[in-house]
Design goal:
By secondary structure, the protein is mainly α. It has four domains: 12-196, MFS general substrate transporter like domains (Growth Hormone, Chain: A); 207-262; 267-436 and 480-508, Growth Hormone, Chain: A; 445-479. It has 22 helices and two strands. The protein has helices at residues 15-39, 42-48, 53-56, 58-81, 83-103, 107-136, 141-169, 174-177, 179-193, 207-225, 238-257, 274-294, 296-303, 309-315, 317-336, 343-354, 366-381, 384-392, 400-431, 450-459, 462-467, 471-503; strands at residues 435-440, 447-449. Strands 1-2 form a two-stranded antiparallel ribbon. Helix 6 (107-136) packs across helix 19. The longest helix has 33 residues, at 471-503. It is globular. The two termini are 29 Å apart.
Length: 529
């Protein structure tokens, strides 16, 4: 008598699965948009709370550190408490943190409430990936991951547009209050749509691993994020190297510890799987280039071209349009065509899109840059989610939660490293401009360069009149600043090309999914009722 087989999984995404996808996308939109929306409000925070940009930058840093702290716990917590209960709890925490941020009347309160937000936001992405992977079944992971990838790629694009509009038309409070109706809708939607959590035997909690990895990641990312703070370039102070060193030591200790317990906080034994290891390496290098350069595109339009925040967001919109067009196509391809045959091609598209940015000037055609961003978006739409799909296909049903957590940690670290590295390169390139005789920074006492003053004049046009500087000096400074951006984009291009190397080792033959390896033969692979 033949063994029972699992019911066949429909090839297309049915309505029930798309409902689950809608829940996850709502959470992802809140978590990812919140990072980029707040980034455009930093000058407003400095003015409202009468403090420095270095201080208000902690509204970003605190959120990032909270994400890094809670992500490692998510895999264990999902197994212990159930994905539905934990996902709803994360939504409640994030929404409550958003409302408290809007009510803050000091910068210290705002930073504290941003940390609370980050604790909830850090769980949303890995939990969302777990929920969607289990709901889709092994044959449809690529298409469903493409749905999740839309907010991940569009966040850096739509965030500045939304943030600029809300601040201009209403007030800074609304960049947080907008999460309230979305959060309530997501909580109700999750309660109705997500399947009930099934009772499972809880694994022992890796307390030692948590005490090593969570503070280790937080300390390392704190050091990395402090590199470019205040525009100090490569002048690394004790806060940078001490924090980063302590973080690396704790992370290293965790690596040695992780192979001892049966159920570690993050299962590094997963790296014994060659396909997963290759996918993680390719994704990390790609994220460093993508997230790092993603912050520079709007900065060029704001600082060199003198555009408003809203206009800068609109000018980088072609990248999002390209990604939206390609992601559904790439998701379907990821389920049918080995990613090793597609991802390197899409990475070459991204590299081609970078080329015009490596030749920037102070008056480069917007049509050329828009076309380049569109091509780049097409490439991005066919890169990140197929790589993640390839990694998730190597995992069994019980490994999905911890594998999703691992991928999110890699993304978070890659994004922080990319932003820090490219920011330092840009800062030092701009500081290499000629100094203006007699002009000094009132805060640091350092001499001001032509490029720095030219950028400041684009942000505050009245500065030219107050300093009485000639127009040709400003033009020289803007030209130098454009060259600095171009040099930085050369590094980003090199990183994208470097990511092609591990991408060439991604599977080039039909991938066998292991998602059902530890599921009972009579069980359905789709966790829906």
């Amino acid at each position: 008598m033949s063994a029972p087989t699992a019911p066949a999984v429909p090839d297309k995404l049915d309505g029930a699965v798309l409902k689950v996808a809608g829940v996850v996308v709502l959470g992802a939109i809140m978590s990812i948009l919140d990072i980029t929306v707040v980034s455009v409000a930093l000058p407003t925070f400095a003015s409202v709370f009468d403090t420095t940009l270095a201080t208000v930058a902690w509204t970003m840093t605190g959120y990032t550190l909270a994400l890094a702290t809670v992500i490692p716990l998510t895999g264990w917590a999902a197994d212990r408490f159930g994905t539905k209960r934990l996902y709803i709890a994360a939504l409640v925490l994030f929404t409550a943190g958003s409302v408290l941020c809007a009510a803050a009347d000091t910068i210290e309160m705002l930073i504290a409430f941003r940390v609370l937000q980050g604790l909830g936001g850090g769980m949303l992405m890995p939990l969302g990936m777990t929920i969607m992977t289990r709901a889709a079944g092994p044959e449809r992971i690529g298409r469903l991951m493409a749905v999740l990838g839309i907010p991940m790629l569009l966040g850096p694009i739509s965030g500045p547009i939304l943030g600029g509009w809300l601040i201009d038309q209403f007030s800074w409070h609304w960049i947080f209050l907008i999460n309230l109706p979305i959060g309530i809708a997501a909580i109700i939607y999750s309660w109705i749509v997500l399947p009930k959590d099934t009772e499972t035997v809880s694994e022992s909690f890796d307390l030692v691993g948590m005490l090593l990895l969570s503070p280790g990641l937080a300390a390392f990312l704190f050091g990395v994020s402090s590199i470019a703070e205040g525009g100090d370039g490569v002048h690394l102070g004790p806060r940078v190297w001490v924090s980063a060193t302590i973080g690396l030591l704790l992370i290293t200790a965790f690596v040695f510890h992780a192979f001892r317990p049966a159920h570690p906080l993050i299962d590094l034994r997963l790296f014994k799987n060659r396909r997963l290891t290759v996918a993680v390496i390719a994704m990390f290098v790609f994220i460093v280039a993508f997230m790092g350069s993603g912050l520079l595109f709007p900065s060029y339009f704001l600082q060199v071209r003198g555009e408003t925040t809203l206009m800068a967001g609109l000018l980088i919109a072609p990248q999002g349009i390209g990604a939206m067009i390609m992601m559904p196509i790439a998701g379907t391809m990821a389920d049918k065509v080995p990613v090793g045959r597609t991802v390197p091609f899409f990475m070459l598209l991204i590299a081609a899109g970078f080329v015009p940015f490596t030749m920037l000037s102070a008056d480069t055609s917007y049509w050329l840059l828009g076309g380049a961003l569109f091509v780049m978006g097409l490439g991005m739409g066919g890169t990140m989610m197929p790589i993640m799909t390839s990694a998730l296909k190597t995992l069994s049903h019980q490994e999905v939660a911890r594998g999703s957590t691992l991928l999110n940690i890699v993304q978070q670290v890659g994004a922080s490293v990319g932003a820090a590295v490219l920011s330092v390169i840009l800062t030092n390139s701009i500081q290499a401009s000629s100094a203006i005789e007699g002009a000094v920074d009132p805060e640091s006492g350092e001499p001001l360069t032509e490029a720095e003053v030219a950028i400041a004049s684009q942000m505050k046009p009245e500065l030219i009149d107050s300093l009485g500087l000639p127009g040709e000096l400003i033009q020289r400074g803007l030209a130098f600043a454009a060259d600095a951006f171009a040099s930085t984009f050369v590094v980003a291009l090199a990183l994208v090309l470097a990511a092609i190397v591990p991408a060439l080792f991604l599977p080039r033959k039909k991938e066998e999914s292991h998602l059902l390896d530890d599921v009972d033969g009579d069980a359905t692979p789709i966790l829906l009722h």
